[in-house]
Design a protein that fits this description.
This protein is mainly β and 483 residues long. It has six helices and 32 strands. Bound molecules: copper (II) ion (CU). Copper (II) ion (CU) binds next to loops.
């Protein structure tokens, strides 16, 4: 691991079709009230559920609530079993699960298990609406590799508003392959979950979902960076090496993550589980919806400040919104050296050979310039139209061709896919593992190998969509069945 085969700034910029770094940062009004920064880092509660007749059962109560983001102000939110965001659900690969999702919102909602392979009826997409006061209890088997997944609202045309208010949480999956590796995995000691988001607050310290025309085009962004609902928290730790499970849970912000001292860190997992080997990097981009697991060495005793350069879908034209402090890691004085990094992580088979169709998904905009609708293959989402069917067991090639001047992170429900080409080049090592969300830059063409296993349903569809939630709600989404 001596060289840095990672995505360098230059490569990312090339990949985004020339992000205009010199362009002025987006000017946003400063909040009238100060965010409470520098508090101790806190994670969402770890919830292993309860066992009922061999099934792991999670109780998830979705309700309006409040959270103190700003000094002395209670901000109205949506939370799951708490005021803002939800628990970290902890389960083992192979578990039989039941999710009891109680809707205490007073309006229809859904809860989608992002990244999980499951029957369409359990997916929690816009066809699994939960009425106010009702409880939805899907059951499915956890057919995943160890990794970091998440769940969030997916109500038709309300996804952005619900997630903005806090309707999201993390799913942490373990398995034997991962457990055999010398990696940090003790929650709260050397293994930490970071839900990254940004929010903007009004003069009263509230964060109403008041997306204006620009937000709808570029994705809703805020000027206050949050990790687990905290602004710039501090973690004191005695561990020589930390594992950071990072979710970009933002509506519309991409985060270019790096440390203030430009130190190297290592990515060990992508959306769907472990990479083949640790990938050394000094910065990396996470799109809305993407997760990464990283190792951070603190054995040298230096304070590590995690930062994020935030940018929106229109970065190629507008540049970034600036660099934000995410959080600070403060190592204890009495340290032990970090153990050697494992050379290999997971046994990643080569992407499966295609056995089925090649489908092209052209991303475009209607109208002139920046003011059109976002389209996939010339159309917008229609709740009552199935766009196509995939034969059960097929491995298909899905080519995403972005003809817009914006970045779109594309997410496909039910599957973990493999990226086989980005503009005709093989994927970077951190993109070569299991993925469910992929950044498609302006002018880029990205080819995926996608396998559809073991769940057939000719009626209920799965979704594919842009994970900029404003684009999804505006209809940049389609649906397919597996038959
Ligand atoms: Cu988009």
């Amino acid at each position: 691991m001596t060289h840095l085969p990672s995505v360098t700034r230059r490569k990312i910029l090339a990949g985004l079709g020339g992000l205009a770094l010199a362009a002025p940062a987006l000017l946003r009004p400063r909040p009238a009230l100060a965010a409470l920064s520098g508090r101790p880092f806190v994670q969402p509660a770890l919830d292993a559920g309860r066992m009922e007749a061999g099934r792991r059962v999670f109780d998830l109560a979705v309700a309006t609530g409040g959270h103190e983001f700003l000094d002395g102000i209670e901000t109205a939110t949506i939370g799951i079993n708490t005021g803002f965001l939800g628990p970290i659900l902890s389960a083992r690969a192979g578990d039989a699960l039941r999710m009891n999702v109680a809707n205490g919102l007073g309006e229809p909602m859904t809860l989608h298990w992002h990244g999980l392979h499951l029957p369409a009826a359990a997916d929690g997409g816009p066809h699994q609406e939960v009425a106010p006061g009702a409880t939805w209890s899907p059951e499915f088997d956890l057919r995943q590799k160890a990794g970091t997944f998440w769940f969030h609202g997916h109500q038709h045309r309300k996804t952005a508003e619900h997630v903005w208010a806090g309707m999201a949480g993390v799913i942490r999956v373990s398995d034997e392959e991962e457990a055999a590796l010398p990696l940090p995995r003790t929650h709260g000691e050397d293994d930490f979950t970071l839900v990254l988001q940004d929010r903007r607050f009004d003069a009263a310290g509230q964060m109403p979902y008041d997306a204006n025309m620009h937000d709808r085009m570029a994705g809703m962004q805020g000027d206050v960076m949050l990790v687990n609902g905290l602004a710039a928290p501090v973690l004191d730790t005695a561990a020589p090496r930390l594992r950071l499970r990072i979710l970009n849970g933002a509506n519309g912000s991409f985060y270019r993550l790096h440390f203030a001292d430009a130190r190297a860190f290592y990515q060990i997992a992508s959306d769907g589980g472990l990479l083949a080997a640790p990938v050394a990097m000094r910065e990396t981009v996470l799109s809305p919806g993407e997760r990464g697991e990283y190792l951070l060495d603190l054995a040298d005793g230096a304070v590590a400040q995690l930062r994020a350069e935030a940018f929106g879908a229109e970065a190629a034209m507008m540049g970034s919104a600036g660099i934000r402090e995410v959080m600070t890691f403060r190592p204890d004085a009495a340290r032990t050296p970090a153990p050697a990094l494992p050379e290999r992580l997971a046994d990643l088979a080569p992407p499966p050979a295609p056995t089925g169709a090649t489908r092209t998904f052209t991303l475009s905009m209607s109208g002139m310039g920046m003011m059109g609708d976002f389209l996939i293959n010339g159309g917008q989402y229609d709740h009552d139209r199935i766009d196509f069917s995939v034969p059960l067991g097929a491995t298909e090639t899905w080519i995403w061709d972005n003809t817009t001047p914006m970045i779109h992170p594309i997410h496909i429900h039910d599957v973990q896919f493999r990226i086989i080409g980005r503009n005709g080049q093989p994927p970077a090592p951190q993109e070569a593992g299991l993925k469910d969300t992929v950044l498609i830059g302006p002018g880029e063409k990205v080819a995926l190998q996608v396998r559809f296993d073991d769940y057939a349903d000719a009626v209920l569809p799965y979704m594919y969509h842009c994970h900029i939630l404003e684009h999804e709600d505006a209809g940049m989404m389609g649906q397919f069945t597996v038959v």
